[in-house]
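1st attempt posting a full record on here, be nice pls
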Amino acid sequence: MSFLSKIFNKGPKPVIAHSKEGNLATLRAQRAGPASPGAVQKPDTFYVTASVELGNTTTKSIVMATNLNTSESYLLNKTVKMTRDIRPPKPSEEVFGKTVWGIELSKEAVTDLIRDTVLESLKKCQVDKDEDLDFVVRSTGVTAGFATAEEAGQLIIALADGCLEADIPPRKMSPAMSISQLPERLQKHSLLENIMFDGAVVSVVPPEGKETVANEMEGELVTAGIKLGAKWTEVDYRNPCVSLDFGSTLAGRIVNKDEPYASTVGNFLGLAGVISDSLAKGSKQIDQKNGAALDIFDPKLLKKADGKKHQEKAKQYAKEAHELINICKVPEGIDRFGTVPLDAAGAKAAGTCLIGCDVGNNADGLDGLVEIGAKIYEDEGIPTLLATMDHVSANIVYRVLDVAFEEDLILDGSILGVTGRAGITGKKPELILEYAQDKFKDVVFVEDGLALGSAIMARCMNSMGTQKNPLGGNQGERCILKKRMQAQGTIPK
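the predicted structure (as tokens):
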């Protein structure tokens, strides 16, 4: 920290990786290589993916183009719809799950929403689904309303059906088995002849055995997405690392530095953004059933919330809110924590520690947060309420990481990555950095981590690594292709 920063009590500035926007036609027209006289410059090759996500609060289709030479990704379009606006299931349709707010979902309704969202997104960025689009990855943060972790897989099928309804070919939703199955422009960038996809995503393998927690895929994708997003920064966000996704629900992983693949030694789950949503409902300024904190966000009010008076009040209210919030290592003998289905015994057998965040018992204490929000609004107004949300979310980060450190899960030299609406908005990055700067080698905040994770998942499935600029492996080290090939028996050890 500089001398002047100390005088004015300013801490280090958070590193935030915002999505870089781009147009596919323009990106393809750009010529790579040295501009020397007579040199033939070739265009970069872009891998175009669509990330389709059904979340508790928002449903997104995010179209990305990744430069296969540099691993830099560009946002072509982000189409966002509120999940609460999904059509109700028809009398003839079976309700197979709910959002954390109780919005009922049928396979047919999900299919319709995903179809419309995908088609709108592709149209807006002028990406042809036949000629331009290379791969579609589906994911969901909606895990609360399912009876078991396995049932959450039905939702992934519904997402796939939505893509099929949008006329996305099935081959663009499953990995290629050989280079010949890829478009010619991509073949030189694939390592399928050297290495096959074996389940590891950006050099991290999922926990062994059957799925132990319903948000496992979400944690996998956000970890990968933060790695990709960090490429726009100076932070080398590779193993060992910790990821936290603050969507409506909490997801993320603690990753060690084993080679060639790191292991997931910790998994975060439970409530996140719904805690802020509950505080916001206390204001009565948003819909009492389906409203979200996003509905009261206002740049002018956020700036006002940064004032000393509002911040001091917010700290006190945050402490009061946290008296209702339970954060701990998930105990054995239960099958759900913070609304998320899990298999505690399976997680223990796999060597994965589950760390959860809940309010009451499976969110039955959220009304207490609504009451606190009402008190804040009546006594202090919206700016203090917004400031309180920031401090509450930051305190969740402190507490879940404290548990992880107590369990000795986080290796020295680990880097912390944070994404999600309840983790990177407002003053949250500054507050989180205050806690983390002395406990982690570095900290990075990434926009749209889940979508970026989908983009890199698509590359991993088709063995499209970037050897000169790797995303996998350990910090400061070279590409692990050779070690992977040795592990798969392609070359001798």
